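ok, trying the design again with the full structure, not the truncated one.
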């Protein structure tokens, strides 16, 4: 049977683009459809613009520190419009880079929503044409969701909207306690917005190491974010030129903007999956095996649409493993163990492996942890603290987890992650000479356990 394409990819985000261009570079005939902008969540409305906003928001404190170091600083207010023009130009540039990567590898792209007609047929909704493909890869990602609430949640925005704000709000409420809520709380606070954050649970960043998230929460509050845990929105109305919010803790307030950072859901609605043998899970995610293959042998899925580990580098790896498996005859599973990641709060949190709580439930452990005022800030009388922590197996001495709360923790955990992924023991950490004076030298100089469990 002959097909129009060897591979047709639905979704032009990080995972889909990587799989498409690597398969095409290897000689496959590849088509790719994207209904929005090439680059997907990470490049257009996620990691990249978010990180640029993190940079923008950090200068206020940097300038304050510079003053105390003896500099004369002539800083004005933050100009959102100026920043937004530059941000949009950068996103346009990156989108062009993605288009170039695809074209140069011979991938044919379609600016259209694509749906599935059957196990080998795709319909391009823009013009109604159909294309056939031997293999189909679904890489449609996810999207932010508002709570299913009694009040009108459409009064609040989601993370996709934040990059297109015409002006910065003066007063903002952020609902949620996960990655996105905490990152934007720090960003907006740094840009001078008066930020209140509601989280329904007992402590933000559920699932991360307790000591690490406690320190992040303390520092966020010290930086000026007004965090209310155990608090949710009860009611919300347009009132007094803003959004009036009644909270479960009895408080009421009017905010210029409300951001719902209350989770994301896989983009599987209306894809035509019912025309194929692809199965969905409870959260609407596509169910795949270790090789990213769905129940329909010709259809694979990677990235956030499968709701495995929702991180860009993981989607890229899943895309590469898919190409290796299907086009290079080398069945390759993606390793989802020991993935380092960072939360770009202020200060950042870098983490890999088991939290102290998870490890303690698994086996006897030693915990090596230290929290201190870093030299750069302590010199000018700042109270901010950082934390370095290793969770170690008592039986094998293997480092099971590493948690860092500090400026540039994301950079540090990338490197600590290499050792931990290789199965390094605490003794091997200790064999490494410290780089002095740095914050991360503490990772190789903690001699006695802080506690054992
Ligand atoms: P998360 O799932 O991390 O957080 C969602 C938050 O919203 C949780 O605090 C959750 O509370 C709360 N919540 C959920 N539903 C409701 C509701 N109905 N009412 C009130 N609160 C609610 O999602 P995010 O959107 O923050 O991030 C999605 C994913 O994107 C992350 O898991 C991560 O994989 C990825 N990401 C990674 C980043 C990075 O690597 N730096 C940055 C941004 C995103 P509860 O804890 O009680 O469930």
């Amino acid at each position: 049977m002959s097909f129009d394409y060897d591979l047709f990819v639905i979704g032009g985000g990080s995972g889909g683009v990587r799989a498409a261009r690597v398969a095409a570079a290897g000689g496959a005939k590849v088509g790719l459809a994207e209904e929005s902008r090439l680059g997907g969540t990470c490049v257009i409305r996620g990691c990249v613009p978010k990180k640029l906003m993190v940079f923008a928001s950090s200068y206020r404190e940097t300038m304050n520190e510079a003053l105390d170091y003896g500099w004369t600083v002539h800083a004005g207010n933050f100009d959102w419009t100026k920043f937004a023009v530059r941000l949009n130009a950068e996103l346009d540039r990156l989108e062009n880079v993605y288009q170039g990567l695809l074209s140069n590898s011979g991938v044919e792209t379609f600016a259209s929503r694509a749906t599935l007609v059957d196990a080998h047929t795709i319909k391009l909704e823009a013009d109604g044409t159909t294309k056939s493909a031997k293999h189909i890869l679904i890489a449609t990602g996810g999207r932010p969701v508002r709570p299913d609430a009694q009040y009108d949640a459409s009064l609040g925005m989601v993370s996709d909207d934040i990059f297109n704000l015409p002006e910065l709000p003066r007063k903002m409420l952020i609902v949620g306690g996960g990655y996105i809520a905490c990152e934007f709380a720090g960003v907006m606070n740094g840009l001078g917005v008066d930020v209140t954050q509601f989280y329904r649970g007992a402590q933000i960043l559920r699932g991360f190491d307790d000591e690490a998230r406690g320190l992040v929460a303390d520092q966020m509050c010290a930086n000026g974010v007004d965090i209310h845990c155990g608090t949710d929105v009860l009611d919300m109305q347009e009132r007094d030129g803003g959004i009036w919010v009644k909270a479960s803790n009895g408080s009421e307030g009017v905010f210029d903007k409300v951001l719902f950072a209350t989770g994301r859901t896989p983009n599987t609605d209306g894809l035509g999956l019912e025309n194929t043998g692809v199965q969905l899970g409870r959260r609407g995610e596509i169910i795949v095996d270790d090789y990213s293959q769905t129940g329909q042998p010709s259809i694979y899925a990677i990235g956030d649409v499968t709701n495995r580990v929702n991180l860009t580098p993981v989607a890229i790896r899943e895309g590469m493993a898919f190409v290796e498996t299907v086009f290079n005859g080398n069945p390759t599973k993606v390793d989802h163990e020991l993935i380092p990641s960072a939360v770009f709060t202020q200060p950042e949190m870098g983490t890999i492996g088991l939290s102290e709580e998870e490890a303690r439930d698994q086996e006897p452990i030693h915990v090596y942890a230290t929290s201190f005022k870093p030299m750069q800030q302590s010199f000018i009388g700042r109270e901010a603290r950082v934390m370095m922590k290793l969770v170690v197996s008592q039986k094998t001495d293997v480092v099971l987890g590493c948690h860092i709360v500090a400026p540039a923790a994301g950079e540090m955990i990338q490197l600590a992650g290499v050792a931990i992924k290789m199965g390094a023991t605490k003794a091997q950490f200790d064999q490494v000479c410290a780089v002095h004076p740095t914050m991360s030298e503490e990772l190789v100089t903690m001699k006695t356990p802080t506690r054992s469990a």
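Keeping the full-length input from now on. The pocket of NDP is lined by residues 147, 175-181, 183, 199-201, 206, 232, 261-264, 310-311, 341-344 (CB under 6 Å).
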